[in-house]
Amino acid sequence: MEKVEVKISPSKESKYPIFIGENILNDAYSYINKYTSANKFLIVTNETVFPLYGDKLKSDKSEILILPDGEIYKNMEILGRIIDKALSMKLERKDALIALGGGVIGDITGFAASIYQRGIDFIQIPTTLLAQVDSSVGGKVAVNHVMGKNMIGSFYQPKLVLSDLSLLKTLPERQFKTGLSEVLKYAFIEKSCLAEYDYNFYAFLNDNVDEILNKNTELLKKLVKISCELKSSVVNKDEKEKGLRAILNFGHTYAHAIEKLTKYEKYTHGEAVSMGMKLIFNLSYSLNVISKEYYDSALNLLKKYGLMTEYDDKFDKEEFYNAMSLDKKVSGGQINFVLPIRNGEVEIRNNIDKKYVTQGI
Question: All domains of the chain, ordered by start, with CATH?
Answer without folding.
Answer: 2-169 (3.40.50.1970), 173-357 (1.20.1090.10)
